[in-house]
Specification:
six-stranded antiparallel β-barrel; 388 residues; conserved putative lor/sdh protein from methanococcus maripaludis s2 fold; alpha+beta; 4 domains; Elongation Factor Tu (Ef-tu), domain 3; 32% helix
Length: 388
């Protein structure tokens, strides 16, 4: 007896699973539909009985689903990457001479202009050398002038050779004076660019060696950010393309920039492209060394957008179930993008305003009859009128 009861229970479970998956068998559903029709006609009259039979018959064979409209809209393709900012102009000032510091012309980290004096070195010897060179040049030029005057009078005293020697002596004297003046100028160290000085600890009396680093100077009116993008972003890259950057130092603030350069090859190890963008920093709020998150945005042409749950995968590719006149059919599509719970797809049969199945896709077969939430609402709205 227990064995028979177990078999009956298994049969009931199999029948329940079949009905849940595929609906009632056609004969049984027709019989139930006729009974429902007769019952309804006895209570509500012939007209309401006919409508009730149709609804009952359809509901018994149909799969309940949820539908969504196909809408066409562009997809905003966004790429983001982390990069580090540097000053557009940055100089490490290196000493070309050696000597004792006589004057330090700056304090702290001020903003300087090109040509501003930063340090002065002891230059007594260099000044003396300039005076000697000036005296030698004066003597050489006097001799040359005297020889030229005598030669112009055709006195025969000054030979061509003597004249050439005088000219050479004057030229050498001028060169020596230029060298002496250059050595004197080198004892005064000036800023080569506009910018802000970095930290420097030089004091009067310190000895500055040849090749020693004096100070860093950064022109931060423009910040250059270097970052990496995946190779699939290569079609978005072009000079002057707008980018958006944020930094933890200014939460919620977005800085606009533009692409000024990008690499012509893809890194084989990381499969990325190196990109440089510049950000205007006229207000001086951004500093070299800051971390930036850089974003690129690109809007596509309008594409069909549907909920992500509408997409199914088969051996032949991706598809959606298109609902038409209470039935469904599978339509092949190409998946393009996803953002949160929305996907963008391409398909020849996708039109604006068409409806696709979102929930219940796992129960569908080609040509299957469906009932949606809209149908159930329509039936519920029609029921009170039928009863009257």
């Amino acid at each position: 007896m227990k064995h028979i009861l177990s078999l009956i229970a298994v049969a009931v479970l199999i029948l329940a699973a079949y009905i849940y998956q595929f609906g009632l068998p056609f004969g049984l559903s027709s019989l139930l539909g006729d009974q429902a029709s007769q019952t309804a006609s006895g209570q509500a009259g012939p007209a309401s009985g006919s409508n009730g039979a149709r609804r009952a018959g359809r509901a018994s064979n149909a799969t309940y689903v949820t539908l969504a409209d196909v809408t066409f809209k562009p997809y905003e393709d966004t790429f983001s990457s982390i990069g580090t900012g540097v000053a557009k102009q940055s100089v490490s000032l290196i000493s070309e001479v050696s000597g004792q510091i006589k004057e330090v012309m700056f304090e702290g980290t001020p903003v300087v202009s090109a040509g501003d004096v930063l340090l002065k070195l002891e230059d007594t010897s260099e000044r003396i050398n300039v005076e000697i060179a000036e005296a030698n040049l004066s003597q050489a030029e006097d001799s040359l002038e005297r020889y030229s005057l005598l030669q112009s009078r055709n006195s025969g005293i000054v030979t061509a050779t003597s004249m050439k020697e005088a000219e050479s002596a004057a030229a050498v004297a001028r060169g020596n004076l230029a060298l002496a003046q250059k050595e004197l100028e080198d004892r005064t160290i000036k800023s080569p660019i506009d910018g802000r000085l970095g930290l420097a600890e030089w004091e009067v009396g310190d000895f500055l060696s040849n090749g020693a680093e004096i100070v860093d100077i950064n022109n931060t009116e423009t910040i250059i950010v270097t970052f990496e993008l995946p190779e699939r972003a290569m079609n978005l890259l072009k000079l002057d393309k707008e980018v958006f950057a944020t930094t933890p130092a200014f939460s919620g603030k977005i800085f606009n920039g533009r692409i000024i350069a990008f690499d012509s090859t893809i890194d084989e190890a990381t499969r990325t492209i190196t990109v440089k963008a510049e950000i205007d920093n006229g207000e001086g709020r951004l500093w070299p060394g800051m971390t930036f998150e850089v974003m690129l945005r690109q809007h596509t042409e309008p594409l069909a957008a549907v909920p992500a749950m509408a997409l199914t995968w088969t051996r032949d590719g991706t598809q959606v179930w298109l609902a038409e006149d209470g039935k469904v059919r599978a339509v092949p599509v190409i998946f393009r993008y996803r953002q949160d719970d929305t996907i963008w797809i391409e398909g020849d049969e996708l039109k604006d305003g068409k409806k696709v199945v979102v929930e219940g896709v796992q129960k569908l077969r080609p040509g299957a009859t469906i009932i949606s939430d809209e149908d159930k609402k329509a039936d519920s709205n029609a029921s009170p009128k039928s009863a009257e």
